Amino acid sequence: MTPPFQKVALIGLGLIAGSMAHAMREQGLAERISGHARSAATRETAAEIGLVDEVTETAAEAVRDADLVVLAVPVGAMAEVAAEIAPHLAPGAILTDVGSVKQAVIDAVAPHVPAGVHFIPGHPLAGTEHSGPRSGFATLFRNRWWLLTPLPDTDPAALDRLESLIRAMGANVDTMEPPHHDLVLAVTSHAPHLIAYTMVGVADHLRRVTESEVIRYSAAGFRDFTRIAASDPTMWRDVFLHNKEATLDILGRFAEELFVLQRAIRMGDGQHLHDYFTRTRAIRRGIIEAGQDTAAPDFGRSAKAD
Amino acid sequence: MTPPFQKVALIGLGLIAGSMAHAMREQGLAERISGHARSAATRETAAEIGLVDEVTETAAEAVRDADLVVLAVPVGAMAEVAAEIAPHLAPGAILTDVGSVKQAVIDAVAPHVPAGVHFIPGHPLAGTEHSGPRSGFATLFRNRWWLLTPLPDTDPAALDRLESLIRAMGANVDTMEPPHHDLVLAVTSHAPHLIAYTMVGVADHLRRVTESEVIRYSAAGFRDFTRIAASDPTMWRDVFLHNKEATLDILGRFAEELFVLQRAIRMGDGQHLHDYFTRTRAIRRGIIEAGQDTAAPDFGRSAKAD
């Protein structure tokens, strides 16, 4: 069977692009994959492990004759990359991105896209706390959601083609308005990440006085926070700077709620706490029913590593 | 080989007590295990699945002739249970607990302990978001820390005996002053749990307007929060009410830090965010090196459930 894409160009060779390369190869979705990363060290590693068929010195080279171009760079780098590759995009090519924020990426990229190129912004809801060209794996997208935020003039045939590719990598596709995407992600991902970073920072201060006890005895809650807070600093800096309004809105609500619970602790209002904690349990059940996680005990992870 | 304990009494038959029963049976650590739970439904389930050798109607019956008694009830229930069992404790018995707070448990239990009974407060740093008599499993404690906070007059031989039992269940033992335990746990566990509960509550409000999108698209951060926030409401209510000072102290520091990061987002201070996020990565590495978690990608969990 002929692969659905002749040449896929991956701009940026981190966790997401690397996982796409693995998944597309495993499923035979691209005749050829070229890749470019700004960092020479990343390009070298990618070439060494054969992550893609061809590692190019420039982004422009990578996109030449590609029928699919994927921008997999931090959100803050999208504008520059788009400007650089725009004159080299093939007519009829699909251009997509994997940024965690959508409106800011559209504002940065759309003005550069030449007529005849189909720009369809996207965001795979998948990741780990690891980054770099060695961090990808073929199953990263399996059973995860991949949101697309097509523009009003998006060509339905191009959208179909991109959706088929994404489904072939194992993900589910949904479409959404860009600002709505940014609000939903602020609450499900961006605010939680900032909160996890903050808590780990607080522990860091305390750690200095307790000689690593905090690390040694990091129980349930804190371990999960540190995993979240170990994510790529550049990517997350850009997320917060480019989804500023929605993130600050959610963080404001969060601070209000937290103060109410803090007050309940201070006043000894056990009923309030119990009611609140009972309600949050139901949300967890909803997530398990929605298939976005399993009910398997969290702590199995460490047992498995024995 | 004769088991090290003749009769172990488990008061409370939830996740921790159930896991102890499984682990002690697997390792042959008790000749006989009796158990009691306040709820008739819990007692019925425990008897039905044969969790222990004998399920008793009262706590007093369970502890009769036991050479080890484990209080595995919510922190707020410790005083009442201690008062009830005290007259029935066998001379020379070891009495321990598994509460997440230590000073408050000591204040609640110690006044009831008769002379000749060795009260050694303890806290296994292990758990899942599940609770109840069916939730336990033998490997829960494997490679986890089990903190003991012996009192000034604790008998060294009794302490040795309890430590050996805990090690035989797979855990590592360390001892600590009770107030210090409560501070360390406030930062590694109690504050993170309250924060997770809060964030899930915020999402709950938003969920009402976005028709379950928040659940459907719950990415990395939020999923981890919901797992934490699904923990037993009664247990956690009691933790916060009984470790009030340390928890409020850490939450105060947390709010300060969060506001500084919120301000950096508002002002567009990318350098501050990047520096902060880079520092938190190092803490994560420390935890992996300390053996409290693995570097395996978090998202493997859902792939495994396919």
UniProtKB/TrEMBL annotation, chains A, B:
<dbReference type="InterPro" id="IPR046825">
    <property type="entry name" value="PDH_C"/>
</dbReference>
<keyword id="KW-0520">NAD</keyword>
<dbReference type="Pfam" id="PF20463">
    <property type="entry name" value="PDH_C"/>
</dbReference>
<keyword id="KW-0827">Tyrosine biosynthesis</keyword>
<keyword id="KW-0560">Oxidoreductase</keyword>
<dbReference type="InterPro" id="IPR036291">
    <property type="entry name" value="NAD(P)-bd_dom_sf"/>
</dbReference>
<protein>
    <recommendedName>
        <fullName>prephenate dehydrogenase</fullName>
        <ecNumber>1.3.1.12</ecNumber>
    </recommendedName>
</protein>
<keyword id="KW-0028">Amino-acid biosynthesis</keyword>
<dbReference type="InterPro" id="IPR003099">
    <property type="entry name" value="Prephen_DH"/>
</dbReference>
<dbReference type="InterPro" id="IPR050812">
    <property type="entry name" value="Preph/Arog_dehydrog"/>
</dbReference>
<dbReference type="InterPro" id="IPR008927">
    <property type="entry name" value="6-PGluconate_DH-like_C_sf"/>
</dbReference>
<dbReference type="GO" id="GO:0070403">
    <property type="term" value="F:NAD+ binding"/>
</dbReference>
<dbReference type="Pfam" id="PF02153">
    <property type="entry name" value="PDH_N"/>
</dbReference>
<comment type="similarity">
    <text>Belongs to the prephenate/arogenate dehydrogenase family.</text>
</comment>
<keyword id="KW-0057">Aromatic amino acid biosynthesis</keyword>
<feature type="domain" description="Prephenate/arogenate dehydrogenase">
    <location>
        <begin position="6"/>
        <end position="295"/>
    </location>
</feature>
<dbReference type="GO" id="GO:0008977">
    <property type="term" value="F:prephenate dehydrogenase (NAD+) activity"/>
</dbReference>
<dbReference type="GO" id="GO:0006571">
    <property type="term" value="P:tyrosine biosynthetic process"/>
</dbReference>
<comment type="pathway">
    <text>Amino-acid biosynthesis; L-tyrosine biosynthesis; (4-hydroxyphenyl)pyruvate from prephenate (NAD(+) route): step 1/1.</text>
</comment>
<dbReference type="InterPro" id="IPR046826">
    <property type="entry name" value="PDH_N"/>
</dbReference>
<dbReference type="GO" id="GO:0004665">
    <property type="term" value="F:prephenate dehydrogenase (NADP+) activity"/>
</dbReference>
